[in-house]
Design goal:
Layout (H helix, E strand, L loop, with lengths): L10 E6 L4 H4 L13 H15 L5 E4 L3 H14 L3 E3 L16 H7 L1 H8 L12 H16 L7 E6 L1 H12 L17 E7 L2 E9 L12
Parallel strand pairs: 1-4, 2-3, 2-4
Antiparallel strand pairs: 1-5, 5-6
Helix pairs in contact: 2-3, 4-5, 6-7
Amino acid sequence: MSATRAGTGRRIVLWRHGQTSWNLERRFQGSTDIELTETGVAQARRAARLLAALKPDAIVASDLKRAAATAAELAALTGHDVARDAALRETYAGEWQGLTHDEIVARYGEQYAAWKRGEPVRRGGGELETEVADRAAPVVLEHADKLPENGTLVVVSHGGTIRTTIGRLLGLESRHWESLGGLSNCCWSVLGEGARGWRLMEHNAGTLPEPVLGDDD
């Protein structure tokens, strides 16, 4: 991971995609490519108007449809191209993908409990959270390093990937990443650059208000 440049005042806005039908069903999406609902598109349009006021310098997004469609709403207002990167996809969760929360707890109770305790768990035989951070955080930093002084990068991704990326950039131990809490659909967190590295400036901003639905998706 590259070192941050002290004193340049850069910001990273990590924006979760809009609502999907699987979010409403509390169904684990992971890397499954699910589209936004009509409500999700409306959420993205509303949030994009707010984020456009930040005058972002660049936008990068997961290549999954729900994130790419969310990013497109901001791109339409700012005129920026969206760089798409598969490294920003949600956690691959193997056998968990497509299951509802209740089904996961019923079938994989011990695995689920271990994950909630902060233990390294390959949910459904998929990726570790640290592996998600290993692929996503360097991409975010690569784009942040291209920003001008006081520049703003908007990263459009997924609840779990955003949480692990924030945890990694803040230097938190992985067992504490869960303490960051989830993001509601189309809400965002802001990291600002300080003399000692990245700091969490806002978390779950722009709440519609909506509950956190299907955080890791």
